[in-house]
Amino acid sequence: GAVVSQHPSWVICKSGTSVKIECRSLDFQATTMFWYRQFPKQSLMLMATSNEGSKATYEQGVEKDKFLINHASLTLSTLTVTSAHPEDSSFYICSARPSGGGTGELFFGEGSRLTVL
Amino acid sequence: DAKTTQPTSMDCAEGRAANLPCNHSTISGNEYVYWYRQIHSQGPQYIIHGLKNNETNEMASLIITEDRKSSTLILPHATLRDTAVYYCIVRSNTGNQFYFGTGTSLTVIP
Known about the structure:
The complex is a heterodimer.
Chain A: E1 4-7, E2 10-13, E3 19-25, E4 32-38, E5 45-51, E6 57-58, E7 67-73, E8 76-81, E9 90-97, E10 107-108, E11 112-116
Parallel strand pairs in A: 2-11
Antiparallel strand pairs in A: 1-3, 3-8, 4-5, 4-9, 5-6, 7-8, 9-10, 9-11
Chain B: E1 9-13, E2 18-23, E3 31-38, E4 45-50, E5 55-56, E6 61-64, E7 70-75, E8 84-92, E9 104-109
Parallel strand pairs in B: 1-9
Antiparallel strand pairs in B: 2-7, 3-4, 3-8, 5-6, 6-7, 8-9
């Protein structure tokens, strides 16, 4: 099946710093990628839809200036958590759907665990 | 918003079939039913999806009721490695976003 890779798998940072997480589709092109956040013992919450070559679409309640998304190519989307604080500590997961149709399923990355001290 | 409801948790004996139900009473005619599972601290893994016919693959079977208001995911011979949270999602084939509900935490017991 299609592979989506995230980097880093885990990161620890100090409060006030910014952290960038990369999401790559390794063997397919993805016009659209999605970013989710998951807190312990909770479900995945969709944060934003990342569109190649255009601005991301954010879900209600997600601060676009805090969670910067860039989708510079058909195989790479990045999420930057700016001025991170302890409450931003979470498991961030990206997903992608192959361009050009297919059967519609999304392929998910392995997730990136962010801990803000 | 998620359009599905699932039991919070279920147990299944190892080697037995695990039957995971999902209600999606407001499903639209062009919406598919997708199933994913998430093993602890990993990204979700695709299992199966269907529109109205029953589907089977190497992982599982998906049974969709005739009125499409509910479905059941069947793991025919559950193993300990099937312990995970199972999510049922409805979405149109041309739609974009997947919204996750609370899922069912399946525990396979030795």
